[in-house]
Amino acid sequence: MGQTDNIGIEKAKAHIVVEIIEYVSNSVVMKSIIKKTTGNISVVSFDTGKALNEKIIPFDTFVQIIDGNAEIVIDGISNLLKTGQSIIIPAHSSNLVKANERFKMISTTIKSGYE
User: Fold this and answer.
1) Which of 57, 80, 83, 91 has the fewest CB atoms found within 10 Å of its own CB?
2) pTM for this predicted structure
3) Residue 18: strand, helix, or coil
């Protein structure tokens, strides 16, 4: 059996990422895949009408849509992404992630290289 972190994702084993997380009615659900001081990878599900609060973080974040369609607003500019599409949210940019319909995404934040 492979190793697991406290986050419950088994290492050295293939996973179907879209199946790691379920949709929950009227919720945003986030599950860490890797959480390190140098960066994080999470899978997130959004029910219709839900959003993450607008924020600014000091690191680049790579977002890939793995199910459904998402609206990613970066510095006031709306980007509509479909399953399979991705976008990089630049460090220090205002961003808002919205679910006009339910969707799932992988979010990867890299914290090194900004020293």
Assistant:
1) 80
2) 0.89
3) helix
In a domain, 77, yes or no: yes
| E strand residue ranges, the chain | 28-36, 39-46, 51-56, 61-74, 77-82, 86-89, 94-98, 103-110
CATH number at residue 32: 2.60.120.10
**Per-residue pLDDT tens over the stretch 13-45:** 999 999 999 999 999 999 999 999 999 999 999
Which one-letter amino acid corresponds to residue 59? F
Cα–Cα nearest to 18, from 31, 27, 36, 6: 31
User: Read out DSSP for 50-77?
Assistant: -EEEEEE-SS-EEEEEEEEEEEEEETTE
Q: Report the 10 Å Cβ neighbour count for 81.
A: 19
